[in-house]
Design brief:
Strand content: 5-15%
Largest sheet: 5 strands, antiparallel
Oligomer: single chain
CATH architecture of the largest domain: Orthogonal Bundle
Protein name: Protein kinase domain-containing protein
Shape: globular
Organism: Camellia sinensis var. sinensis (China tea)
Number of helices: 12
Family: Belongs to the protein kinase superfamily. CAMK Ser/Thr protein kinase family. CaMK subfamily.
Number of strands: 9
Structural class: alpha+beta
Helix content: 40-55%
CATH class of the largest domain: Mainly Alpha
GO molecular function, one term: protein serine/threonine kinase activity
Keywords: ATP-binding, Coiled coil, Kinase, Nucleotide-binding, Serine/threonine-protein kinase, Transferase
Length: 339
């Protein structure tokens, strides 16, 4: 580990592992605040210029985007001969993939996710960054359930009106123009977010198949459907928004800013976020109360014995001299730590 890293932070347990390294929980030696540190083994990327460029590019992109309330913040970077260490905001709650797997979300739950997600994407686009791999696995939550967009290894910077190229992304979520090998804009992120919204409301992806090739063919066709048995309780406004986000014609597809200015009920999203935060507080309060009650129960016999000994001291004070009282009380203090 880097000497500078060990000076500024104290590393704790491992909390994640990837292709190129390990993620640890750590805390600041100065403030005591908790963080995550991604330690990348440089020997694993030494022979692959693409992977090496992606990792260093991720650091630059995150520095460009920080700080933002809905993007994982980068705090420090340390590098030595063997490792690259990136100190990041700690997001120790479950990611969106874990939350939406095998369940259907209500519209209010979906809105509570989509508003901060689109805020994060719009912030990236305003800074000239296309994420290019928006998917539930890369959408994290901190201890207060605030959404944080993560993993900028596939991101690319662009200038206004400038197009990008290269096939990047993940099956199910990648936009059709990417798969077609055409140049594309930052709106590929809006497509991916639209897929996430569809999955949250339907429990299944809009374009699927038995293999990666089948999935890609379905994405290229972009035949968007809303089966009645699945979407019978979904509002027409939500379905219209999906049509705008999952529009194959890029010129007609909404931008991130346009999504944020649609009929998405931000107040509803804020209310859900507040409710979640309150529930977190209730859970913490319950845990503290439970721990306090357990502490009381464990010490009730101790407290009773202390009271008995105090009574003995009072009795002693009426029949023994001062030195005897002091000696007896000193013995009591040695036996019980709460005096």
């Amino acid at each position: 580990m880097s000497d500078a890293l060990n000076r500024d932070y104290r590393l704790c347990e491992e909390i994640g592992r990837g292709r190129f390294g390990v993620v640890y929980r750590c805390y600041s030696s100065e403030s005591g605040d908790s963080f995550a540190v991604k330690s990348i083994d440089k020997s694993l990327i030494a022979d692959d210029s693409v992977d090496r460029q992606c990792l260093y590019n991720e650091v630059k992109v995150m520095q460009l985007l920080s700080p933002n309330p809905n993007v994982v913040q980068i705090f420090n970077v340390y590098e030595d001969d063997d490792h690259l260490h990136i100190v990041l905001e700690l997001c120790n709650s479950s990611d969106l993939f874990q939350r939406v797997a095998n369940r259907v979300c209500s519209e209010s739950e979906a809105v509570a996710v989509m508003v901060p997600l689109m805020e994060a994407i719009a912030h990236c686009h305003r800074r000239g960054v296309a994420h290019r791999d928006i998917k539930p696995d890369n959408i994290l939550f901190d201890e207060w359930e605030r959404l944080k967009l993560a993993d900028f290894g596939s991101a690319e910077c662009f200038r206004e009106g400038e197009l990008m190229s290269g096939i990047v992304g993940t099956p199910y979520y990648v936009a059709p123009e990417v798969l077609a090998g055409r140049e594309y804009s930052e709106k590929v992120d809006v497509w991916s977010a639209g897929v996430i919204l569809y999955i949250m409301l339907a429990g299944i992806p809009p374009f699927y198949g038995d293999s990666a090739a089948d999935i890609f063919e379905a994405v290229l066709r972009a035949n968007l459907r809303f089966p009645t048995r699945i979407f019978h309780s979904v509002s027409s406004a939500a379905k219209d928004l999906l049509r705008r986000m999952l529009c194959k014609d890029v010129s007609r597809r909404f931008s991130a800013e346009q999504v944020l200015h649609t009929s998405i009920d931000r107040k509803q999203a804020e209310m859900v976020a507040v409710q979640v935060a309150l529930e977190k507080l209730r859970q913490r309060d319950w845990l503290l109360t439970t721990e306090n009650e357990m502490f009381k129960m464990e010490n009730v016999n101790h407290e009773k014995r202390v009271m008995e000994l105090e009574t003995e001291v009072k009795k002693l004070s009426g029949q023994q001299n001062l030195q005897q009282r002091i000696d007896h009380h000193t013995k009591i203090k040695a036996r019980f730590k709460y005096f």
